[in-house]
Amino acid sequence: MRKGLLISLLLIALPIVAAGQNAEHPKRSIYPKIYSYHVDRGPVLDLSTLKNSSCSPIHGIDSTITAYMQRHHIVGASLAVMRNDSLLYVKGYGFADREAGERMEPWHRMRVASVSKLVTAVGIMKLVEQRRIELSDSVFAKGGVLEYMVPPVHDRRLESITVEHMLRHQGGFTCKGGDPMFKVGAVDEEEVCCKVLGMPLDFTPGTDQDYSNVGYYLLGRIISTVTGYSYEEWTRRYVLSPLQCNDFSMGGNYLRDRQDREVRYYMFPGAKMEEDFHGGGVMCETCYGGNNVKGLEGAGGWITCAADLCRLVAGINIESGIYDLLTTESVQTMTRETDEKEFSLGWLDTNRVGIWTRTGSFGGTTALIKYYSWDGDCWVLLTNTSTRHYAKISKFSSELIMELRSKYLNSFAHKDLFYER
User: What is the phi/psi pair of residue 93, to 5°?
Assistant: First the structure.
């Protein structure tokens, strides 16, 4: 009798303890790893069929996200949650196209900005595994992969830049005076990079870091030069397709370039018009013409849906579920512990606690991936709106996910939306 009463009390107390735990601390995570679906379950269901009605409603989660969107004037957002390679939740909020009255659904696709860098880094690591390049290879030295891009007059330190330097933003490139990939008139991205390669480096490669879109664009050029394919074609064929990430494609620059199931993008209220990236004094909304999105390629050009980003993470997290594209060694190389003085490979940060973070933002979009390696949780949040607090929006989005984890960590239905509807 006493034993039965004790068990009953424990069953009542367990959810209370879970709800009050620190959702960021691995030692306090008690959610069991009960989901582990394998590749032999067959092909993933078409994510374009995912609807808001696919998810079991969770009391309170909608109001929390809606309040966040209202606070930051976000028109539309999409949230996906995966645990141990199983998609537990995915839902759209607000509008994909406010003017058309089109509500956001899970199948809507959005620009993911610098989250594209994670895709590029995975591609590079795949080439390393195939022994077609090495992380230690000098990129611009004699015989280097991109030797052909080096101008006759250049900083000799350029020849010491390795593949890993560029993956970690340690190549010596600088954004002082503005990011060269976003300057007005910077239409031909390869030409822009050639000009950058002819300028003095800001620091000796490997001795410091400076976030560099140029470096990741050049990593895309490494992929195309080594493989003989375009960056997009090779990445889709040998990185995304094996993971059944079928919703990725390269985005366009203008509203007229909008693709199938792609959202409409918005600036925050009161945002000023900017000069079109082509130059010539033509003014535009930053989200439609302010940046050469298509030209960024591996630095920021991809569009996809939140669920497909979960699928990508599932393929590079060494969980015993979805097919892993990379070896354990490669994943460990990408995600070894770093601090604020060093970027991870592709990921923005992989800290000592075990949280892997990748962010992205530019005109008209924000993107965030949070992966909690100790309990296999992956949270993806995409929006189709720039916010007034541009520099802090990733921090605010991370705080939202922390709040959602603390309140709803154990509330998701026991099903896998990759395979079940």
Answer: -135, 145
Q: Say how far apart CA 238 and CA 136 lie, in whole Å.
A: 23
Kindly report the backbone phi and psi dihedral angles of residue 277, in degrees, each rounded to the nearest multiple of 5, phi listed first: -65, -20
What are the structure tokens assigned to 70, written together? 């209202």
Read off the pLDDT of residues 171-208 as tens digits, 9 standing for 90 and up.
999 888 788 888 877 667 778 888 899 999 999 999 99
For residue 195, CA distances in Å to 44, 138, 183, 261 come to: 44, 19, 13, 37
Structure tokens at 328: 């354990």
Q: How many CA atoms lie within 13 A of 130 on its CB side?
A: 14
Q: What is the pLDDT of residues 5-17, one digit of tens each?
A: 443 443 334 333 3
- Beta bridge partners, 377, equal 83, 372
Q: Are 202 and 176 in contact (CB under 8 A)?
A: yes
**How would you classify the pairing of strands 365-372 and 377-383?**
antiparallel
3-state secondary structure of 328: helix
pTM: 0.90
| Alpha carbons 73 and 383: distance in angstroms, whole number | 11
Look over the chain and give the mean of its residue pLDDT values, rounded to a whole number: 89
Q: What are phi and psi of 207, to 5 degrees?
A: -95, -15
Separation between Cα atoms, residue 361 and residue 300, nearest integer Å: 9
As a residue count, the chain comes to: 421
- In the structure encoding, which two tokens stand for residue 301, read together? 């050009």
Among candidate residues 283, 282, 286, the one with its CA nearest the CA of residue 253: 286
Helices within 72-161 (DSSP H only): 116-129
Q: With contact defined as beta carbons under 8 Å apart, do 380 and 151 qualify?
A: no
Tokens found for residue 55 = 């998810």
Q: Please, are residues 139 and 222 in contact by the beta-carbon 8 Å criterion?
A: yes
- Residue 291: phi and psi, rounded to 5, are -130, 145
Q: Looking at residue 402, what DSSP letter applies?
A: H
| Residue with token string 């990593």 | 219
Report residue 396: phi and psi, to 5°: -65, -40
Dmax (CA) for the chain in angstroms is 87
Distance CA 76, CA 93 (A): 6
**Cα–Cα dist 115/368, whole Å:** 8
Position of tokens 């990725």?
A: 248
Give strand pairing partners of 288: none
